[in-house]
Amino acid sequence: MASKTTVIHWFRKGLRVHDNPALVRAVEEAISRKSYFRAIFMLDPGILSWMTVGPNRWRFLQETLSDLDENLKKINSRLYVIRGNPNETFPKLFKLWNVELLTFEHDIEPYSIERDEIVKNQAEKFNVEVIEEYSLTIFNPELVVQKNRGSTPMTYQKFLSVASELKVPQPVDNPTKLPNSCIPELDKNELKDEEVYDVPTLEQLGVNSSEISEYSRFPGGETEALRRMNEKLKDVKFICEFEKPNTSPNSLEPSTTVLSPYLKFGALSARLFYQKIKEVYRGRKHSSPPVSLEGQLIWREFYYTVAATTENYDRMVGNKICTQIPWKTNPKYLEAWKNGRSGYPFIDAIMRQLKQEGWIHHLGRHAVACFLTRGDLWCSWEDGVKVFEEFLLDADWALNTGNWLWLSASAFFHQYYRVYSPIAFGKKTDPEGKYIKKYVPELRKYPSGSIYEPWKVSLENQKKYGCVIGTDYPHRIVIHEDAMKENLSRMKAAYAKKKVDVEETPQGKRKADSPKGNTSKKAATKQRNSLEKYFKK
DNA sequence: AAAGTGTTGGAGAT
DNA sequence: ATCTCCAACACTTT
Q1: Which of A59, A339, A423, A506 has its CA 20 to 30 Å from the CA of residue A431?
Q2: Which residues form the Photolyase/cryptochrome alpha/beta domain (predicted)?
Q3: Separation of A150 CA and B3 C1' (Å)
Q4: Is the CB of A527 under 7 A from strand C?
Q5: Assigned domain for A41 exists
């Protein structure tokens, strides 16, 4: 039937029209080849076999897709949402639409790489050209590793120095408006109703809308992402003086930008945000990485680079950068932590905010992550990753995993004796306990002097404040002072074992009588060498 | 071999 | 607000 050919841009992450090189390329090619242009997104049910998406992130994705559809209409196009597994669906689409070119943004997650390999093979079979562009991060991990002579920079400072030698890619312009000749007419034979390609409603995504009534704080979408970014950029003092450790984990209004959910879905381009921050800095005194706002974006770059080059990055076993620690499975502890019922009001407030709103401050993440793992509950960081993955709007495979590796002192960070106190830490920025009162309302009548430690209040006063510990609010599941001491010794043992294990690796001949001072140095050198070898493909 | 550094600890002193 | 100490890690620089 010699029908006109089609150029497809496949959205996965990068759910935006701005700074989207693969989209721009597809539009340009469609125009020059006089082909139809279609932008697609695939709802892949397979993703649920390996990740949990809570109702709030479904909501955020749904809003992001709706907004993307609207923004594509401004260039005379629309979004086609395809229900199905990419590997099964693409061959059908290639045939149905007579596809000659497919473009998408390259991703680094193992799941994506595997999926894309299959799709690329299918494309070859159907004689479909594939163009991948890179726009996920500012610095392409491949180029970073190349610049570092084949090894991954494993410290932030090292990453900074390597990145400083790389060219910073500038955002690309929005795609031009498509001529009518590129707009496909509805083929009556293909499907009876164009509506099957519409952005799904929440109900169609299997989300009960009554479940999401309270999640209105951060709407999804590129339009909201750009609005939020521009609003933050107006506050020059905030941008220039930003120092992460001085922001508050427990203010009632977020003390940081909350642009992370938009970066996660690619509704906001990291390259654009980076450029905008630099524009505000220009000619002004400003803070510096790692604590500055620019530094926060570079943390994202750092974790993406390590994630892209580390085998079994999201697991302890088989992960060469991860200290092997004998965590214990404890469903009771895990459930209490997850549901904000640990008995520590500061911890519970954070976990409840996470579940309700899908975003918590970075330092709040530190406090609850330390608590779950090396600080108090001795549960695996992998358990924590899964809970964050379910609830966080910004749950990002590379970043979420990286932060858990850090906080559990499994990689990157090693000063395991620095433990966050579930009582003292929050008091520094919220001595009144207003944050606790908001998210753990059963404690709202407790005075500021005891709201962080309600178990210390006499039963008489507990009754007076309308919240009896053990009845209306749980007893603390562990005694922090004791748990911390025990866990410190467990960490010490795990680190000592690592040292010995590295020392006994096959390529190294161990000197049984070598002085102790030498041991750590030798072990460290060996580990570094083996890592470098490992990263050189 | 030793000193310095590492995004953001806590407690107690000044 | 800034100091020391706690008991002390990995890794980099000198």
Answers
A1: A339
A2: 5-138
A3: 29
A4: yes
A5: yes
CATH for A471 = 1.10.579.10
* Co-location of A101 and A161 in the same domain: no
Return the nearest residue to C6, CA–C1': A417
Tokens of A532: 């470098």
A208: CB within 7 A of chain B nucleic strand:
no
Structural domains of chain A, count: 3
Tell me: do A81 and A118 sit in the same domain: yes
* Contact flag, residue A154 CB and nucleic strand C, below 7 A: yes
A257 burial level (CB within 10 Å; 0-12, 13-18, 19+) = buried
Residue A126 annotated as part of some ligand binding site: no
Residue A193 has pLDDT above 80, yes or no: no
Same domain, A418 and A398: yes
| Residue A418 approaches strand B within 7 Å at CB | yes
Protein CA at A264 to nucleotide C1' at C11, angstroms? 31
Chain segment A70-118, per-residue pLDDT in tens: 999 999 999 999 999 999 999 999 999 999 999 999 999 999 999 999 9
Query: Cβ of A290 < 7 Å from strand B?
Result: yes
Q: Can you give the distance from the CA of residue A520 to the C1' of nucleotide C11 in angstroms?
A: 11
Kindly state whether residues A129 and A98 are assigned to the same domain: yes
Same domain, A57 and A85: yes
My answer on whether A436 and A296 are in the same domain is: no
Report chain A's C-alpha Rg in angstroms: 25
Q: Annotate A468-513 with DSSP letters as a single string.
A: -BTTTBPPPSS-HHHHHHHHHHHHHHHHHHHHHHHHT-TTS---TT
Residues (153-172, chain A) with CB within 7 Å of strand B atoms = 155-157
What would the DSSP string read from start to end of A192-205?
S-GGGGSPPPTTTT
Q: Which of A9-23, A161-175, A204-218 has the lowest mean pLDDT?
A: A204-218
Determine the distance between A499 (CA) and B2 (C1') in angstroms. Answer: 21
In terms of domains, do A388 and A453 share one? Answer: yes
In a domain, A499, yes or no: no
Whether the beta carbon of A417 falls within 7 A of nucleic chain B: the reply is yes
Amino acid at position A343, single letter: G
| Same domain membership, residue A421 and residue A284 | no
Domain interval for residue A451: 331-480
pLDDT at A525 over 60: no
Rounded, the Å distance between the CA of A154 and C1' of C5 is 30
Residue A272 above 70 pLDDT? Answer: yes
